[in-house]
Amino acid sequence: MVSFIGKSIIQKVITLFFVSIVSFLIIHLAPGSPSQVDPMNPKFTPEMVERFRAEFHLDEPLHVQYLLFYKDLFTGKTISWRDNRSVLMKIWERFLNSLPLFIVGTILTWTLSFPVGIRSAIGRGGVYDRSATFISYLLISIPGFFFAYILIILVVTRFHVPVIGMETFGTGAVSTVQMVMDRIWHLLLPSVLGATGGIAVLSRYVRSQMLEVEGQDYVRTARAKGLTPEQVHYRHALRNALLPFVTMFGLILPGLIGGSVIIESIFSWPGMGRMAYEAILARDYPVILTVNFISAVLVLAGTFISDLLYMVVDPRIRL
Amino acid sequence: MERQFASSDMFVEAPDAPRKTRLEIFWRLFRKNRLAMFGLVIFILFFFTALIGLLLTSGQDPFFDPAQVRLQEKLRPPLSSPNLDSLRPDEVPRLGIYLFGTDDLGRDVFSRMLQGAWVSLTVGFVAVGISVLVGIFLGGVAGWFGEKRIGMIRILFAILVLTGAVLAASGAYLSFFWFLSGAFLCLIFLYGTRGRDIFLLGSISVDNLIMRLVDIMLCFPSFFLILTVVALLPASIYNIMIVIGLTSWMGTTRFVRAEFLSLREQDFVTAAKALGVGDFRIIFRHMMPNAIAPVLVSATIGIATAILTEAGLSFLGFGVPPPYATWGNILSDGKRFIFDAPWITFIPGIAILIVVLCFNLFGEGLRDALNPKLRERG
What is the pLDDT of residue B249? Predict the structure, then answer.
């Protein structure tokens, strides 16, 4: 166990190192340079460009830039080229905005897909199963931005509540209840949208996992013993079908920083995805690279946690 | 080879009943799946629509002109007839009516949809083609040559040369010089030690190397990476295809590798090896047909994902430069008029939905029909 953990951590650190190199190269080798962001601006004289380049070490050779950048990142001193603010602070602010979306979306995904998937599996081939299958294909296939507009039209015309942004502008003097309701309405659509794809995929996965377990010999034995269908389904089958999902908790982690660019743009939600998008447009390399680095760390940590969880729940893996 | 044996040996018994080919068995199973058949039919329809659309909307004087601006006819609803008094004869839509309405510049949405169909189709196929090629190649190498080991110095050398080449291509000559001298040092090392590993740096197996590469690629958040690269590169549809292709081969690599690892232990591969068949012939002639099923399924679903990704990029304003229409940018243009002219949003949205749905259903049907467990039962 300990040797597995050690090996795994070393391997992941090496992977991270290469990720940092590859992302750095991708960013810096693309045509165009950040000092040319605003060539039409009359204030942007050649001297300014030179000072800018010197300030951000852009005149150094690339490998020196690489070392300088990651030194800054690890000491927490990276600053955004756009507004000279600390990148980590910027990310933290946006992260706090994205967090509610992530939490509500994850709760929706995990609480809805299990009942749907289990019921589909138990009534396999029935009306419920077939309609659930078709609806989940629809939800997987619908472009997120299109679905967003359908929901916006629906909510705005039926319920007459504003949904764009994080809160309604200019509601300073209303009661707390109204403010909370306002917040919830604004939170609802983006998080539902963020969850739809997950619900569709996860419920299909629950269904197939459940079907596989229901076909096992021990489930047949349980039936033959004369147990009630409820006991067979929920005590014998479901417990074993749940096994792979425990490990999926680790894989949620990368979603923390993922924040959908498209959904956040549509709803003007000042979250992570939007910040990354704006950084890309402005060629704000420190922000792009830092977001990329953190998300790589989260992906690796997620797989690590899911490996560990697998070892905890499945004794066959523990060698 | 088999045929030669059959003709020279007249006593070979013909099989008693006509055996069904794999394709027939597959088709029998596939046909039963109504959703998948629906997907296939829509796919064929879409394919021809896109092809006809390309023919009718391109050229100097296209039959349907997607770029024809009629400002006096803007935001007309679908199926409305044009106001003939205000239009010059060459501005009148070919069908006599605006089948899908017009947008905010009075352009015929139907023509623009036809033009955009081809973009969606090619993006899907080219991107997935690239990812499948890369995936099959790397997965095949990892699965077949997996145990071969490469010394660390050689890997270091390859990395230095590659990075150096990339640096030189981008004009960072000073860094390039450092990397080149590093690579040169490695070369001297290799010759000096005659390939022996005297510094005990160890070696790494090919399989391990490729799978770590997959791990590295999986660390990047894919849509964010695509967005970054597409935003930094000049706007062109080919860049999008290549970038989507190069960021989505990891699944295929894993499938092919897994299939190869189990296939190469089987008797027919041992037999082929014993007959002296070459590595590449074994890989492509004997093993690939047996390993292709999961690749086909993931490729079909990959097309759906690629179409969605392209639409998302167009929606954000990246990709094909205007005035060229794609379904994503028609929708993106229409979103400003969503309450006044909902058709500009709904027509491309529903079109994307149907096409992506058909690929997903078709892929799932393929998965079921190619599943050996079901095949035996059927």
Answer: 92
pLDDT of amino acid A136: 92
Tell me: pLDDT of A33 over 70. no
Helices assigned H by DSSP within B219-341: 222-232, 237-246, 250-263, 267-274, 279-281, 288-316, 327-334
Q: What pLDDT, in 10s, does the model give residues A142-158? A: 998 899 888 888 888 88
Burial of B261 (0-12, 13-18, 19+ CB in 10 A): middle
Chain A residues lying within 8 Å of B301, measured CB to CB: none
Of chain B, the end-to-end C-alpha distance in Å amounts to 31
Average pLDDT over residues A47-61: 72
Q: Distance (Å) from the C-alpha of residue A201 to the closest C-alpha of chain B?
A: 12
pLDDT of residue B138: 92
Say yes or no to pLDDT of A75 above 90.
no
Most B-contacting residue of A8, A22, A130, A146 (CB-CB within 10 A), to test interface = A146
Q: Of A257, A280, A38, A260, which Cα lies nearest the Cα of B230? A: A280
Mean pLDDT of chain A: 83
Instruction: Confirm or reject contact between B274 and chain A (CB < 8 A).
Output: no
Residues A267-289: what's their mean pLDDT?
Answer: 86
> DSSP assignment, residue B202?
-
Amino acid B359: pLDDT:
93
**What are the residue ranges in chain B where pLDDT is below 70?**
1-19, 170-172, 194-201, 372-378
Instruction: Please give the pLDDT value at position B377.
Output: 44
- Residue A57 has φ and ψ, to the nearest 5°, of 60, 25
Cβ–Cβ pairs < 8 A, chains A and B: 135
**B59: Cβ contacts below 8 Å, ≥ 6 apart:** none
Interchain pair A30, B229: CB under 8 A: yes
**CA B56 from chain center: how many Å?**
26
Comparing CB atoms, the residue among A61, A143, A280 nearest residue B227 is A280
Q: B43, B215, B219: which to substitute to probe chain A, counting the most A Cβ within 10 Å?
A: B219
Question: B216 and A258: CB-CB below 8 Å?
Answer: no
In this prediction the pTM is 0.85
Minimal C-alpha gap between A176 and chain B (Å) = 32
Distance CA A280, CA B149 (A): 40
Q: What is the pLDDT of residue B2?
A: 45
Judged by phi (left if over 0) then psi (alpha if -120 to 50, else beta), residue A216 lies in beta
How many CA atoms are closer than 13 Å to the CA of A269, on its beta-carbon side? 28
- Paired strand residues for B98: B80
Joined tokens for residue B48: 């021809």
- Give ipTM to 2 decimals: 0.85
If residue B204 lies in a helix (H) or strand (E), which one and from where to where? Answer: strand B203-205
Please tell me if residue A37 touches chain B, with a CB cutoff of 8 Å.
no
Q: Please indicate if any CB of chain A lies within 8 Å of the CB of B174.
A: yes
Residue B190 to residues B154, B163, B201, Cα–Cα distance (Å): 8, 19, 12
Rounded distance between C-alpha atoms, residue A214 and residue B74, angstroms: 59
